[in-house]
Amino acid sequence: MNADIPIKQRGKKTSLFRRKEILPYLMVSPYLIFVLVFVLFPVLFCLFLTFHKWNIIGPMHFIGADNYTRLFHDRLFWKAIGNTLKFLLLHIPLQLVVSLFLAYLLNQKIRGIPFFRGAFFLPVIVSGVVITILWWQLLGYDTGLINRLLTSVGIPKVGWLVNPDVAIYSIALMATWKNVGLYVILFLVGLQTVPPQYYEAAKLEGATRWQQFHHITLPMINPTIFMVVILSTIGGFSLFIEPYIMTGGGPMNQTISAVLYIYKQAFQFYNMGYSATLGFFYAIMIMTVVVLQKKLIEKEE
Amino acid sequence: MFLRLRYYIILTGFIQIISCSTNQEKDKPLLFWCSNNQREIELFTQQTEVWNNGPSGIPIHLQPIPEGQSSEEVILAAVVGKTTPDIYANMWQGSVELYARAGTLIPLDTLKGFLKFIYERCDSSVIKEITSSDGHIYQVPWKVNPIMTIYNQDIFLANGITEIPDNYSKYRQAAEVYKSNSRKNGQTHNWFGYTEVKPIWYERLFNFYPLYLAASGGASLIRDNKAVFNNEYSIEVFRFLQSLYRDGYFTRERLSAAGDAFVLQQITTKWTGPWEISYLLQIPDRHFKFDYYAPPVPDDHVGPVYTYADPKNIVVFNTCTRPQEAWDFMKTLIDKNGDLKLLETTGQLPRRKDLQTDAFYTDYFTKNPMMMTFAKQVPFSKGIDNCEVIVEVLDIISQEYEACVVYGKKTPEKAIEDAERAVNVLLGENTPSLNAM
Fold first, then answer.
1. Which SS3 state, helix, strand or coil, does residue B73 take?
2. pLDDT in tens, B23-70
3. Domain A74-300, CATH 1.10.3720.10 — does that match?
4. What are the residues whose beta carbons fall under 8 Å from the beta carbon of A294, sequence distance 6 or more?
5. Number of Cβ pairs closer than 8 Å across A and B?
C-alpha cells in the first residue's frame, strides 16, 4: 500500500508518526527516571535485602526467610508497633476534632482572622527538632514549666516524659499541637466550599447551629475528613523525631516507635537486612490500614 | 611494517600514560581526616605543616571530617562509598573491630617499624587491648580521656563533706547529707549527682561501664564470644546506682536540655572526662571550685581503681596506596613531641606509658596540676572489648539498666541475668565464622 505514496512524503509521515509516539515518553521520562532510581530500585533492593544478613560494609550473606522469622519473634518490634498504635489512638481523633473545631472558629467573620490563621499554622513551618526541644523543656518533671505551673496551684507534678504510662500520650499531645495547623487549613478550605445557600435554607427551616453542622457541614466536608484521617494516619505511623529527641524510646521502651526501632536496627546496629525486613513489613501494614480506612469511609458514605 | 609501527606507537603511548599516572599517584598527597574539634584541628594543622615543610617529600592534606550527624555515620558512609581518607584520627576503639573484620583497615603490625615503636610507647596491656581477634593490630592507640568523678568543692565544704566519697557507702552518706540540707533550705531542684538516663548505648560508657571497671578491677564484658559480665561487680553497680534514683539523690529527668546542670550548681557530682577542665576554667562567672577523683567503688574494694578510658585511635584505611608512608607521618603525631603538643593544645591525654613519671612532661603537669590526676589514672584506664557487635551489647545492657537502675522494675540480679542471656543469643547469631565468610 505504501508503494503508492511518494518516497519523500512517506518518510515525512513515518518520522512524524515516530515523533508523536516518542514525544509523550520523552515528556514523562524525567519523572520516570526519578521513580525508577529513587522509588522502584530502593523498593526492589529493600526486598532483596530482606533475605540477607548485611552490615553494610562487609559482604552479604543469603539467609532465606530468617529475618521474617526473627521479626515475628522480636518482642521489642511488636512493642514498638503497640506504642505506635497507642499514639495513633489518641493522635488521630484528637487531631481531627481539634483541627475541625479550630477551622470552624476560623471560618467565622471576626476581626483579626488572618492573624489567627497564621498563628495556628506557625508550628507547622517551624523545624520539628526545634519544637521537640522546646516541648522537652516544657514537659520536664522537676524543671519543666508545665509542672511548675501545676505545683504553683497545688496540683502534683506529672511525669510527662518520665512516667512509663504517660510518656507516649505526652508525645501524642505534642505532635497534635505541632501538626494541627496543617489540618486546620485543609478543613478551612473544605468549609469554604460549602455553598452558603444551604445554611440560609436551613435557617429558614428553623435548624439550630448543631443541626446545620451535623446535616450540612459534616456531609459536605466528608472528603476532607477522609483526607485528614489518611494523612494523619500516615504521619502518625512515621513517628520518629519526637521520641528520638525527647525520650530515646524510653522510659522502659514505652515510647519507642516502629520507625525509631527500624532506624536503630539500621543505623546504630548496622543490621541492614533485618531493618529492611521490618521496613517492608511495616510499609505493607500501613498500606493495609489505609486501604481499610478508605473502604470503611466509603461504606459510611 | 606499517602495522608494526602502529603497534609500537600505541604501546609507547600506553607506557607513557601508565608512567604518568604512576607519577601522579606518587605526587598525590595523603588525605588525613581529623575530628571537627577546633583544638584538634589546630593541633593537626601545626603538625601537618611541620611535616609538609620537612624533608620527607610526601605531602599530607589535612581535612576535618565532613559534617554529619555523627563521625561514625560519616565514616560508615565513606567506607560504603569507598571515599575514605588515607588516615583517620579519632576512631572510637569499639568501632575498629567491625571495620577490621570487613577488611577496610590496613593491619598496621605488617608495616615496617610499627611494632617496635608501639611497644616503646605503650604498655603491653594496651597492646593486648587493641589487638583484634585475628591477631593483627589495626589501630594506633592515640588519646584517652579517663572518666572520673568531678565534684563541686564549695558545695562539699558548705555541707560539711570533708572526706572524698570514694566508695558506695561514703557516696550515699554524702548524698543524704546534701539532700537533707537542700530540702531544709527549700531547694527541691538540686541533686547530689546526675548521669544521663536516656536508653542509648553510648550513655552506658559514662555511668555503668566505668563503675563496672572500677568495681571489678578492669574486668571484661565479653570474652571468647560470650558474655562474662554476670558477676558480683555488675550486680553491685546496678544496686548502687538503683539506690541513688530510689532515694532521690539522682533525678530521672533529663537535665541536658535546660543547660549545664553542673555549671548551674543543680548537681554536685557527675562522671566525666578531662575535657571539662578547660571548659569550666573559661567560664567567666563561675563562682565555685571543682576537682576530680576516681569513680566510687564497693566498700570492700581493694587494689587499683580502674575506669573507662574513652579511647580514640588512628587508623589507615585500605584505600591508602602508601600505608608505609602514612605510618611514617603518623609516628610524628604520637612521638614524645607529638604527645606533648596533644596535651598542650587539646588538654587530652596521650595513651603513653609512664606519662606521669616521664620528665619530658613534668613541666606541663606542673602548670596543669588537675591534669596530673588524669595522668595517674591512665595506667588504670581501659577501653572496650573487641567485639563486632559491641554497640548492640551495650544497647542490651542499656535496656536492663533503665528497667532496673532508673525505674526499679527489676532486681539487679534479674536485670543482669536477662542482659547476659540476650547478649549470648546475640553473640550466637553473630559467630565469627559467619562474619568472616
1. helix
2. 555 568 999 999 999 999 999 999 999 999 988 778 999 999 998 878
3. yes
4. A226, A230
5. 76
Answer yes or no: is pLDDT of A148 > 50: yes
Do B355 and B361 contact (CB within 8 A), yes or no? yes
Out of A61, A161, A249, closest to residue B199 by CB: A249
Q: Distance (Å, rounded) from C-alpha B280 to C-alpha A96?
A: 49
Comparing CB atoms, the residue among A137, A250, A270 nearest residue B199 is: A250
Chain B residue numbers touching A257 (CB-CB < 8 A): none
Residue B7 pLDDT grade (very low, low, confident, very high; cuts 50, 70, 90): low
Q: Which three cell numbers stand for residue A240?
A: 520518629
Is B336's Cβ below 8 Å from some Cβ in A? Answer: no
Whether residue A207 has pLDDT greater than 60? yes
A166, A144 in Cβ contact below 8 A? no
DSSP E strands in B328-395: the ranges are: 349-350, 381-382
Segments making up each domain of chain A, as ranges: 2-49, 74-300
* Among A140, A250, A268, beta carbon nearest to B201: A268
- At A149-201, the pLDDT tens digits run 999 999 998 999 988 899 999 999 999 999 999 999 999 999 999 999 999 99
Q: Is the pLDDT of residue A124 over 80?
A: yes
CB A104 within 8 A of CB A191: yes
Strands B267-272 and B191-193: parallel
Does the CB of A55 have a partner CB in chain B at under 8 Å?
Answer: yes
Q: What cell numbers appear for B118 in the block?
A: 608501639
Q: Is B76 on the interface with A (CB under 8 A)?
A: yes
Query: How far is it, in rounded angstroms, from Cα A57 to Cα A150?
Result: 51
Contacting B residues, span 372-401, partner chain A, CB-CB under 8 Å: 389, 391-392, 395, 399
Please identify among residues 173-202 of chain B the ones whose CB lies closer than 8 Å to any CB of chain A. 188-189, 197-201
Q: Considering only CA atoms, which of A72, A251, A273 is closest in space to residue B407?
A: A251
Contact list, B80 vs chain A (CB under 8 Å): 56-57
The verdict on a CB contact (< 8 Å) between B102 and A55 is yes
Q: Nearest CB to B189: which of A58, A142, A253? A: A142
Inter-chain contact A137–B258, Cβ cutoff 8 Å?
Answer: yes
Ordered domains of chain B (ranges, CATH): 29-145+310-382 (3.40.190.10), 148-309+386-436 (3.40.190.10)
The whole-angstrom distance between A70's CA and the closest CA on chain B is 11
pLDDT at A120: 87
0.85 surpassed by complex ipTM: no
User: What is the Cα–Cα distance from B335 to B140, expressed in whole angstroms?
Assistant: 12
On chain B, the residues whose CB falls within 8 A of the CB of A269 are: 389, 391-392, 395
Single-letter residue type at A81 = I
Instruction: Determine phi and psi for B313, rounding to 5 degrees.
Output: -125, 175
Task: Provide Rg for chain A, Cα atoms.
Answer: 26
Are the CB atoms for B323 and B406 separated by under 8 Å? no
A142 with B253: Cβ contact below 8 A: yes
Angstrom CA distances, A157 to A139, A150, A249, B187, B435, stand at 10, 7, 22, 16, 50
pTM: 0.83
